[in-house]
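User: I'm putting together a teaching handout on how sequence relates to shape, and I'd like one worked example. Could you take Phosphatidylglycerophosphatase A from Iodobacter fluviatilis, show the sequence you're using, and then write out its predicted structure as tokens right after it?

Assistant: Happy to. First the sequence, then the structure tokens directly below it.
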Amino acid sequence: MSHKQAPLVRPTWRFLFVHPAHFIAFGFGSGLAKKAPGTFGTIAALPLFALLMQWLSPQAIAWFCLPVFVIGCWASEVTGKTLGVHDYGGIVIDEIVAMWLVLLFVPVTVLGWGLAFALFRVFDILKPWPICWFDLRVPGGIGVMIDDILAGAYAVLALLLIQHFYSLA
């Protein structure tokens, strides 16, 4: 099923609280944005990451992303089935986890976070190979999650290359 397909149910705040998977999949409400829900999900990742930084080391945040990824697979699968759309645009837990991983590779500065945000969005939207291959061929919740992790990996590679030549501090 395509993410361009109309959902069986119209997602609303009420929909988010029918099942915990919906609340998680929709990025705690950020995916309800009428326009560019993926961008709003990515924006939601920023203050959440800042909170995580208050309690966890960067290494612990990286490890924390693993169970959140697994929970995201489950939540995306359940929510996609309820909506009747495999990768509905409002499902943004994938953007959140991927953005957390990208933020681990930049300094906590406006430039670092801004560039991380911009590069992640570019790769998530353009889906260069092999992201597009995974996006089209991997079903279920893992299919929803994996393409954003790969977009995050592309963003990290670009950020590491940029930081080799320029300081983001």
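A couple of points you could highlight for students: The CA atoms of residues 41 and 127 lie 17 Å apart. The chain has a mean pLDDT of 94.
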